[in-house]
Amino acid sequence: MLSELLQQSANKRRTVTKSQVLQRPGDPVGRGYYVLEGCLRSYVIDADGKEHVLQFAPENWLVGDQKAAIRNIPATLFIDALEDSPVLEL
Q1: Is residue 29 within 8 Å of residue 69, measured between CB atoms?
Q2: What global pTM score does this model have?
Q3: Most exposed of 2, 32, 45, 84 (fewest Cβ within 10 Å)?
């Protein structure tokens, strides 16, 4: 199943730069990311402004806001790049 999804997304390759934010809370959720190289992370920021990392997504990992996608609600997480990272948008 993953291989089929990656084949379908092969033309949706892009490179995100270090510190680039791909998703913010409140954004519409329409995609996830498969990391080809580099590293992404997902996190939340609490009421005191402290970041809480939920996931690191190194090479060959998927990252996305699954809860929001399943519930069909706006994004609840930040996703950003920790280094320049080629990804596939899923």
Answers
A1: yes
A2: 0.85
A3: 2
